[in-house]
Structure formats: structure tokens, C-alpha cells
Design a protein that fits this description.
By secondary structure, the chain is mainly alpha-helical. The protein folds into three domains: 85 residues, Fumarase C, Chain B, domain 1, CATH 1.10.275.10; 219 residues, Fumarase C, Chain A, domain 2 (Up-down Bundle), CATH 1.20.200; 93 residues, Fumarase/aspartase (C-terminal domain) (Ribonucleotide Reductase Protein R1, domain 1), CATH 1.10.40. The protein has 19 helices and six strands. Strand 3, helix 8 and strand 4 form a beta-alpha-beta unit. It starts with 11 loop residues before the first helix and ends with a helix.
Length: 455
């Protein structure tokens, strides 16, 4: 490719070290589509004659078809996917193939390929995210009235519904969908035509090529066009947040599946056993998702570190962006693909949840609120309730079982209606504030998310 300048061939080890086709071959579709749009733009501008354009487009379509059907294999002796396509095109159509690279560089070529590839993959990830959200919402609707302890500091805090708990994750993942959408909108500008860094002397029409490739416009500065990888980092940040959310839910599923909780049971098809302990049923899929989260974080840090000290414009360091990006994409897709059916088939043990909610004095706040509604200052009610909880712990009973006579030793404000006020059903049902845990509120949350998914 650069034989005119160099008197010696590249050392074989250096050639292998320099080559990227083993991983950037993933972008063959985008590279060919970008080349077709470039050739058609050159012809429209009179830079390339129509006959050569027809040969080039026909040859590129043939290469794409042969790669798709397996009739053509990648030549791993080529440096990258761009040179493989160009070399194969020239082999098929002759000198016309050598004219394709007029008014462009591999610098803007790879920049447009990565944007198109990431755009396509982001659409797939968004679809997987939406499917997972839909499955979580369905599970939340099934359990919108199932009472479970809510936790802070991993200590039982207040009664909530399991549907309410699940909808928290639906909200997180819905924000992830928005982040992908926003990142895609910022990325969807074509760098093609920026050439190596300074543009070209040819009378090109960058906007024509951009429109044919589905971009909203062009990058406004040719140096930035070839050296920007903000969009990769932004997507990797979004992917990292997706994995963080999946990891948090994985951690809860792992806890819920344990014998200590027994809140849920994962389907046999999403668990594994032990090679030595026949009783084991391990939540390995959730554990793997939790583990793979660190891998995606590492991919993000790789790109941040890669870009932090690079002078303008393109540098060969930037070849290292693709393996991290591709790895994160594949990891996120794999985790989402396994998570949705795992949630769908998960069995909820409502009775165990309710029994756990009966313990731990999680209706203590409602007892304090009972006194507050009768005129007692909240801090005084808080103190009395704490003293009653201490008495119940000493007597090994719960608030619901303490006789009214014992309550009235603390204040005459207590009446027999307190038992109805501190029942778990009442505690959950009267939390009517928007976004709260009442069944009506959870149903409103479900309705909101489903409308967002449809939109």
C-alpha cells in the first residue's frame, strides 16, 4: 500500500503487530456500505465516471454477498478490513477498483465505519433492553400486591410490594434506553470526507454521502472528524450503567434465591448444580452477569486511558478502540439476552416474602405516624415507638401481638384501632404518594413504563 515510499518490506512480526483485520473484520458491512456511498458521491460530483462507479458498486455488492454467504473468506494477510475490501475489489474489477479511494483516507473511513457499526449495535441493544423491561414490568404486575420487606442498609426497613421493588429496576433500565438514544443522536454525523485530517482538494459533497448512509449531517471540523472517539466513550459509559443495573438486580436475585431468603426460585434452565454437592442449585447466570460487569467497566477505562494523551489528529493508538468497544457490545448483548428469560421464568414465593415482612418491626414508622396523627409531635412519637420496639424484642413478640394494655402504659392516645393501622396491608395501601408502594401507585408506574416502551 505504501510501497512507493518504502524500500523494505515490513518485518513479519511488525506486520502482525500492526494488523487489525482479525477484529475489525466485524465492520465489513459498514465498510462496504460506506464505500458504495462514497463512490456514488464521487460520480455525482463528476470526480468518478459513471462506468467506473457502476463497476465499483457492482463489485462491492458482490463482495458483500459472498461474505454473507460464506463464498468469500477474509484474507488475514491484509492489514485491515479497508485494505481487504479494496484489494478484493481491485482483483475483481481491475483499475476501476483503485479509483475508489479518491478523496478519502482510512482515517475518515474507519471513523465512519465505527459510527455505523455502533449505531447498528445500539439498536440491537436497545431492543434487548426493551424486552427485559417488558418482562420486568410483567413480573411486577403479577406481584403488584405481594408484600415483601423493603430494605435500607440491607436491614428490614418498611413494607413494600414486590412489584414496587421490581419497578425500580424498570425505571433504571428505561433511563438506559434514553441514554442510548441520546448518545446515538450525538454520534449520528458523518466524518466521511474529512480525509486524513485536512479535507480534500476535490469538489466533494460530504452531505450527499452522509444522507445516503443515514446520518443527520456531517462533522463540522475535519480534524475532529477523524480524531474524535467521544461517541465510543459515551456509549461505553451507557453500557457500563446498563451492566451496573443488571449487576445490582443480579445481586438481589442471588440473595433472594438463597435459603436464608427463599423469596424467589430461578428456573432449572437458568441455574447450575455442584460437581460434589447434590443439593445445590446455583444462580450462576446472575453471578456471571455480576462478574462481567467489571469487564465492561474495564473496556470503558481502556478507552478513557487510550484517548487522554493523544495529540491531534489520528494516531495509531486509536486502533485499540475497537477491541474494547466490540467486547463491551458483545458482553452487554449476551447479558441482556440471558437476563430476560431468567426473569420471565423466575418463580416468586409470596408466602415467604410475607412471613419475612411480619418480622423486623417494619411497621414501626406507621406506629409513630399513628401517634402523630393524634397530635403528638413526631420526635416524641418516634421515641415512644422505639421504646415499644425494645419491649417487644425483650418479650420476643411483634408489634401486632403486644396487648393494648401494654401500649397504653406509654400513652393514652393508643386505641384498639392501632392494630388495623399497623397491619402490613394497611401500611402498604396507605402509601398513596405518587411513586409510592401502594397497589394503585405501582399500577400507575407500570402504565407509565409501558407507554414509554411503546413510544
Amino acid at each position: 500500500m505504501w510501497a512507493g515510499r518504502f524500500a523494505k518490506a515490513l518485518d513479519s512480526k511488525a506486520d502482525d503487530f500492526n494488523s487489525s483485520i482479525r477484529f475489525d473484520c466485524k465492520m465489513y458491512k459498514q465498510d462496504i456500505k460506506g464505500s458504495i456511498a462514497h463512490a456514488e458521491m464521487l460520480a455525482a460530483q463528476g470526480i468518478l465516471d459513471e462506468a467506473d462507479c457502476e463497476q465499483i458498486v457492482g463489485g462491492l455488492c458482490g463482495i458483500l454477498e459472498d461474505l454473507e454467504t460464506g463464498a468469500l473468506d477474509f484474507d488475514m494477510s491484509c492489514e485491515d478490513i479497508h485494505m481487504f475490501v479494496e484489494a478484493e475489489l481491485t482483483r475483481r474489477i481491475g483499475d476501476a477498483g483503485k479509483r475508489l479511494h479518491t478523496a478519502r483516507s482510512r482515517n475518515d473511513q474507519v471513523a465512519v465505519d465505527v459510527r455505523m457499526y455502533l449505531r447498528d449495535e445500539a439498536e440491537e441493544i436497545t431492543a434487548l433492553l426493551k424486552q427485559l423491561i417488558a418482562d420486568i414490568v410483567d413480573k411486577a404486575e403479577e406481584n403488584r400486591a405481594v408484600i415483601v420487606p423493603g430494605y435500607t442498609h440491607l436491614q428490614r426497613a418498611q413494607p413494600i410490594t414486590f412489584g414496587h421493588h421490581l419497578m425500580a429496576y424498570a425505571m433504571m433500565l428505561l433511563r438506559d434506553v434514553g441514554r442510548l438514544r441520546d448518545a446515538a443522536a450525538r454520534m449520528n454525523f458523518s466524518p466521511l470526507g474529512s480525509c486524513a485530517l485536512a479535507g480534500t482538494t476535490y469538489p466533494t459533497n460530504r452531505r450527499l454521502a452522509a444522507a445516503r448512509l443515514g446520518f443527520d449531517g456531517i462533522t463540522r471540523n475535519s480534524i475532529d472528524g477523524v480524531s474524535d472517539r467521544d461517541f465510543c466513550i459515551e456509549f461505553l459509559s451507557a453500557f457500563s450503567l446498563i451492566m451496573m443495573h443488571l449487576s445490582r438486580l443480579s445481586e438481589e436475585i442471588i440473595l433472594w434465591s438463597s435459603w436464608e431468603f427463599r423469596f424467589v426460585e430461578l428456573d432449572d434452565s437458568f441455574t447450575t448444580g455442584s460437581s460434589i454437592m447434590p443439593q445445590k442449585k446455583n444462580s450462576d447466570m446472575a453471578e456471571l452477569v455480576r462478574g462481567k460487569t467489571g469487564r465492561v467497566y474495564g473496556d470503558l477505562v481502556t478507552l478513557l486511558t487510550l484517548m487522554k494523551g493523544l495529540p491531534l489528529a489520528y494516531n495509531k493508538d486509536m486502533q485499540e478502540d475497537k477491541e474494547a468497544l466490540f467486547d463491551a457490545i458483545e458482553t452487554v448483548k449476551m447479558c441482556l439476552d440471558i437476563f430476560a428469560p431468567m426473569i420471565r421464568t423466575m418463580r416468586v414465593k409470596a408466602d415467604n416474602m410475607y412471613r419475612a415482612a411480619q418480622e423486623g418491626f417494619i411497621n414501626a414508622t406507621d406506629l409513630a405516624d399513628y401517634l402523630t396523627r393524634k397530635g403528638m409531635p413526631f420526635r416524641s412519637a418516634y421515641k415512644i415507638t422505639g421504646q415499644i420496639v425494645a419491649e417487644c424484642i425483650e418479650k420476643n413478640c411483634v408489634l401486632d401481638d403486644l396487648p393494648i394494655e401494654e401500649y397504653r402504659k406509654y400513652t393514652e392516645l393508643f386505641e384498639r384501632d392501632l392494630y388495623g393501622e399497623i397491619s402490613l396491608e394497611t401500611c402498604v395501601g396507605k402509601r398513596i404518594s405518587e411513586g409510592g408502594t401502594s397497589v394503585e401507585s405501582v399500577e400507575a408506574q407500570i402504565d407509565f413504563v409501558r407507554k414509554e416502551l411503546m413510544a
